[in-house]
Amino acid sequence: MKDMDAEAHLPLPAPFFQILAALAPGEAHGYAIMQDVEQRTKGKLRLNPGTLYGAIRRMLEIGLIEEVRRKSGDDERQRRYKLTHLGIRTARAEATRMTETLRYARNNGLEPQEV
Amino acid sequence: MPETTASSRKKSDRFFRRLLRLYPADFRAAWGGEMEELFTARRRCEPIRRLLWEVTLDTFKTAPKEHLAMLVQDIKHALRGLRNNPGFTAVAILSLALGIGANSSIFSMANALLLRPLPVPESSHLLIIEGTSGGESLPQNISHPDYLELRAQSKSFQSIAASSETRFGFASRPEEAPQLKLGAYVSANFSDVLGVPPALGRGFRPDEDEAPARDAVAIVSHALWTDDFQADPSFLCRKILLNGVELIIVGVAAEGFGGLRSGVSVAVYVPIMMFPALAPTPVQAIPGPATPVPFLFAAAFIPTSLTPRPMPKS
Fold it and tell me: Which DSSP state fits B113?
């Protein structure tokens, strides 16, 4: 039933999956997410402010991520986010889906280029 | 780090703040500050032109989506609220239904009576002449002698016709119980002035509007012909009874035409001179020097270049 919840959100839009991947190691704020995605994709995916915060709003709404409670001394303007259980399951389900797609591509002679 | 002056930094920050205004207010309140910080951080380490181009495109791509998302959220919230308060929902729906119903009824009435032009060709050239009397603000009818005088002396109008609505007891056969139908006494040139020739038969001849109670002829509306006589093509020259008086049908009016007033359908037309024979009581008849027909509307067909002159008071 829980996996069904996660699969209901598949396929994830590219920014959603990248944000989930950026939050996998731990909580982060918007700017850190943007930097992580940009570095990991070698600048191929640049999350501009509208795309990033539009995705964050939607992911908060459907419960893939949640806001971390601020500690005293935190910068009030910078909110930090972390994955929820649903977010982790959804990211795994999306990774599985992508792996299967990749395997299918390989089996049909569409070998990915070395990155 | 790209070289940027303080002034260009300020300008780009101001530009981004303006872009943020394209997002819904709620979205701006929630994320605007962080978006601005993110922009400033990127501005410090990226070429400013490329950054401005990217954020502009991004804003135009994402702001409409956010507006749509907010709209959907508002609708969902409203529906949830309505579901949780059935009493309020019922009152709101009822109020809306009554409001919409009342407004559409009033509009339909105003449209039929005031806005929709008469179903005649060149209705914009048509003028309804009404009289005034003793400072009364409401329009008054014009007497038949005044109508004759106006028609004889007027130079501004191409032609003038007259019509006076009344109710007749109508029967298609002598043994039939009469039904009340809206009728009109009209001048012989009525259909010519309005440019609406009869669908069947003929209009009244000038001589049928000369001698009182001599020519018992009538024209019926297209609706009456189709509804009561099943559009019988051999209908002409049949006799009908109006207020117990026999008249011969000489024509059927054009389809959709119902007289001079919008929203009102005259069923039977008779020549003005039939008034003495058809008037149900002497009360209606007010003595006049020319004929006893007292109350008339007059219709005139005027060339567009002329402005109608004020009507002489009756």
Answer: I
Instruction: Report which of B294, B272, B271, B273 is spatially closest to residue B282, judged by C-alpha positions.
Output: B294
Set of chain A residues whose Cβ sits within 8 Å of the Cβ of B61: 50-51
- Name the token pair of B150: 């106006």
**Coil/strand/helix, residue B154:** coil
Q: What is the pLDDT of residues B219-244, one digit of tens each?
A: 999 999 999 888 888 888 889 999 98
Residues of A in contact with B66 (CB under 8 A): 50, 54, 57
> In this predicted complex, what is the ipTM?
0.84
Domains of chain A by residue range: 2-107
- Show me where the domains of chain B are located: 6-84, 123-301
How many residues comprise chain B?
A: 314
B309 band by pLDDT with thresholds 50, 70 and 90: very low
With CA atoms as reference, the chain B residue closest to A38 would be: B42
- Please count the residue pairs, one from chain A and one from chain B, whose beta carbons lie less than 8 angstroms apart: 51
Residue A98 near residue A11 (C-beta atoms within 8 A): no
Residue B111 DSSP symbol: I
Domain A2-107 sits in CATH at 1.10.10.10
Give the one of A29, A54, A78 whose C-beta lies nearest to B66's C-beta. A54
Closest Cβ opposite residue A77 in set B33, B39, B42: B33
Q: What is the pTM of this model?
A: 0.52
Question: Cα(B234)–Cα(B221) distance, rounded to whole angstroms?
Answer: 16
Most confident of A51-60, B113-122, B170-179, B186-195: A51-60
pLDDT value, residue A74: 65
